[in-house]
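Hi P.,

Sorry for the delay on this. The queue was packed all week, but I finally got your sequence through. Input first:
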Amino acid sequence: MKQLKIIAAVALTGMFLSCSIRQVQYNKRTVQVSGTGTVEVEADNATIVLSVVTTGRDATIAAQNNAKKMTAVTEAIEALSISKDNITTQNYSIYQEQSHQAGKTVYGDYKVSNEIKVFLKDKDLASSVIDASIKAGANRLSSLNFGITNSDILVKQARTLAVQQAQESAALIAGTSGAQLGNLLQIYEEYNSRAFPKAALMKSNGDMMEESASYSTPINGGKSTISITVNATYELK
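Then the structure:
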């Protein structure tokens, strides 16, 4: 009988030891917040992509005609104080048009296309460049895009505003709840940008060339928004 009591006591002691080892572990108290920094800026530069497209029954004559017109176009652009370094050939092609009639391939005129990209440090020159190019012989304007020169500086400004807003929100929550704000445990950002409006004028014609002599092409670069959101986790004390 005494032996049974001893065994029971040992078993009971083991139960208490087991309970004392399994202590409840509490995680650190944290607060998760987000902050958004937004910077609005006007465009200060522009990029224009335009072409001279010529056709002819003879490839050599069509190419020579194209070269003559493109030379006039580049000279007209350079006359507006645009550096040659900012005028680059983007694409050049020669091909013969084809069609199919009654099961046969019919060869048509040769088409020559010379496409250039013009970068303007001053977006206000875009209207003058377009008008001068069309007048000189350009007959296709593929795209007009606006941009900003010092985008890195603006991104830093938006990032700083986002971090400051997140920290202020965390401090407010901590103070209101009777806690103190501790160390920053984790942070990551999301980059969002609302681009400048794009103008796309495809394939101009003779009517457009005639009108350019009397009217100036209206250009408005608009504004762009650079927005950065940060999500942060802070420790609460």
